[in-house]
Amino acid sequence: MDNRKSIKTALTIAFLLVAVAALYWGDNNLSRFQLRILNLAAIFVILGASMNLVIGFSGMFSLGHAGFMCVGAYTAAILTMSPESKELIYYMEPIIPLLANVQWPVIPATLMAGVVAGIFGVLVGFPALRLRDDYLAIATLGFAEIIRIIVTNTISITNGALGLKNIPSEKSLLFYWGFGILTILVLKALINSSWGYAFKAIRDNEIAAEAMGISVFKHKMLSFSIGAFFAGIAGALMAYLITSIDPTMFRFLFTFQIVLIVVLGGMGSLTGSVIAGVVITIAMEWLRFVEQPMSLMGMDIPGIPGMRMVIFSLLLLIVVLFYRQGLMGTREFNWDWVLDKLGIAKSKEREVS
Prior knowledge:
Elements: H1 3-29, H2 32-57, H3 65-80, H4 83-89, H5 97-100, H6 106-128, H7 133-153, H8 155-158, H9 173-191, H10 194-204, H11 206-211, H12 216-242, H13 252-265, H14 270-286, E1 294-296, E2 299-301, H15 307-322, H16 335-342, H17 348-352
Antiparallel strand pairs: 1-2
Helix pairs in contact: 1-9, 2-9, 2-12, 2-13, 2-14, 3-6, 3-7, 3-12, 6-12, 10-12, 13-14
């Protein structure tokens, strides 16, 4: 085995062990507020990475992530809530008998949330992915709104506009970041496979990719449904984090936040999505003071709700106008850079090849 390859494998294993140890330490030493912010960061990392697969690596301008997140959140909530909670909450119209006594463990329910969201991704993608560019964005945004309206009106399944409460709570960093790390590892393996190369070829030039024998529609559908799957996973995690959901949570604002993460991190970089996801989540909490009444240079400024999103909108505008590649562009963190800095050379066989 190549010396650098064995070293990189050892470094990856060591990094994962250190990450698990750090998460375990955080679970036992950080405050509830700090845990909540870090868990929310993990959710946005999953959302950013999954949308980057669709936009950055496959070249499809899709804005339907909030809808798939809604599907995942409701699926996980319904599957994990106790029969007693369902009987108490569904007072306008009883829940359908098929779901009344269902109560799954959290992890299987989370995976099922991803599967159901992925199925919705296929249903939405079949008509929508025949469109391109702005038309695709408008179509997927419309489908996301349709999903939200359906959730609002299927009272015997989702409890309608009243939403769901008493969802089982999860607060462990290991739980949220475990899903986050697995998402990154799965997407990294996918992108570095022949499927990933096909995604990039379609992104760069659909006509040339089709001329090379790549099934454009099939690969677009695969990328879109996988992105929907992970959006559903993130929706399930969001439901566990806040323990109550309703259809108004999953408006376009959620999609805007995810697009912000993708653009700031770099379209075509999972590393950028991870960095931007953490930074944006922390910044959203830190900037809450701009919405509070304050005194500046002797002037009393009233609190203005929504100022945080104004700041992020301006930031997005600046990036789009002056730094389109974002933080990482298409670059990824890899151990080769570390080994080069340490002066560990490649094997002669690799150099000759």
